[in-house]
Amino acid sequence: MKKTFKLIDLDCANCARKMEDAIKKLDGVADANVSFLTQKLTLDADEARFDEIMEKVVKCCKKVEPDCQIVLK
Amino acid sequence: MNLTRKEKKALARILAAGALLIAANLLPLEGYWRLPVFLIPYFVVGWDVLWKAVRNIANGQVFDENFLMSLATVGALVLGEYSEAVGVMLFYQVGELFQTHAVGQSRKSIAALMDIRPDTASVLRDGAFVEADPEEVAVGDTIQVKPGEKVPLDGVVLTGASTLNTAALTGESVPRSVREGDQIVSGCVNLTGVLTVQVTKPFGESTVAKILELVENAASKKAAAENFITRFSRWYTPAVVIGAVGLAVVPPLFVGGWANWVRRALIFLVISCPCALVISIPLAFFGGIGGASRRGILVKGGNYLEQLAKVRTVVFDKTGTLTQGVFEVAELLPAEGVSEKELLRAAAQAEAYSNHPIAQSLRRACGENIDPALVTDVKEAAGRGVTAKAGGASVAAGNEKLMADLGIKMTAAQPQHVGTVVHVARDGQYLGQVVIADAVKQSAPAAIAALKARGIRTVMLTGDAQAVGQAVGQALGLDEVHAQLLPADKVDQVEKLLEKKAPKTTLAYVGDGVNDAPVLSRADVGVAMGAMGSDAALEAADVVLMDDDLAKLPEAMDVAKKCSRIVVENIVFALGVKGLFLLLGALGMANMWEAVFADVGVAVIAILNSGRMLRSK
Asked: Is the Cβ pair B278, A66 closer than 8 Å?
């Protein structure tokens, strides 16, 4: 399942790249894209475990860029 | 400059720290007494960097730019270079502010370009029009669009007549007029009259929603240059940091002079962020895609923009792409003793039931209303034509094979036009022939000339007869024409051309996106034309030209080329300057002030360069 999330306060392009790298390595994530320019995260992950994966993604982002928030709808 | 609150705060800190730094330099202090005085501006401008550095180290982020910047400046403080330490932090923050601002502006101008999403729809509920979210409007609902409003959903005009500005979708500034019964697409702006429209598609499937989705997804299809930068930045920072450690430790073991080598190592740390490239390269592609979409050219990803810049062969489909796809009777050649009118009427009668474009053109040319009820016993012979009974007579219209089958003797004629020839007979008597041609698009000759001027080889593929294909090819000055191709042959032909093309160049296929999805996907770049309202084309192609104007094709290539050039400039410039300063730093020929320019200055210049992609008209 593919879903897009808004990111708030994603201030550095290199961090966006690092976040993307880290998210891609998570188990169950098929593909991820963190766009610094559109301030958006596109996540393609296993539908059955999506919420669980999303929690890990949030943790991942916190680790790389603590200021950045993912808007969970 | 319009600064956000956050940016204003950053600017205030920078100015305050700058003033404090100047004051600190003017104070008549000596030795270690100077340190506390310089620490004031240092913390004013850099406390957040230091704080982030500590926090990120706790998270195990060693190669974090905040950490490296903190390390470099703390190192400078330890070495007694107070002014430099504060200065580096100051310039780093100036650069950050500038980057945030420039990127924010670009983001805004792209958002403005893509401002086609309608906010509300005025929908008929219980006899009155009420405001509603376009997503809540169902298929079959009636909506009202007043002058000055955006058409919120795709539909058919029920009442009213108006002109629509389609510029946001097609880049075409000439308004399009619509009246009852016409299809209209969302995203256009209604200019003159009030329209009531019956909705034909839910918002999620409307033209606006499709275009927005497409442009937003474009960012995830990365160009090779972007992937290169991603790979590069993954090892660049660690490599430079390791280089710095080596520089600080190894030479002093042999030649001594620790302070000197540590100073050189700190310069490395200042240049260690690949920011200039990581921001400016995606920004160039983003700007290119945004700029192209304003002209009615949708590019589905940075990779396609990159491919488009390298196109040296363009393969066109004929019907609907180079030609209008609308058949017109070009010439009437009645047999002796037969009037043109008679000839046309018989042809139109025979083709009374057919929906084929040729049949339609015959009926249109005939002018008079032919009552299909009077036409009976219609028999279509595939690949030959059609026979029928009309008003007691038997009529036939078709090609030479049909005439031969019916045993009708044809008389020779010399048509002036090249096109599809329809032979017509009535009650076994040959009436003559009608030549039907598909007119070349007005924009085609100029577009082909523009492509040739760019050194691009032009090829046309068509299912039509050799003579028809050749005539169009010659009229337009195409390099190559392949005619009488079945849809599957077109794929084969494109494969052959793909083999023949020069290395490092690409091949683009331009079609209407309706019947040629396999060819579109086989080519390096598949371009679909006239896509406004055609879902198939939007899906199948890599690049979508929203209207029928072929001139958009060379324009799209120019945008792509400009984008590629900016990307190459930025890569060469940023890597060149950073490489140079790493070298100068290692040799002890650069100071920290120059290093911070190499880092921040280069990033700013590269971002400004990419910003040109947005401003191009």
From this structure: no
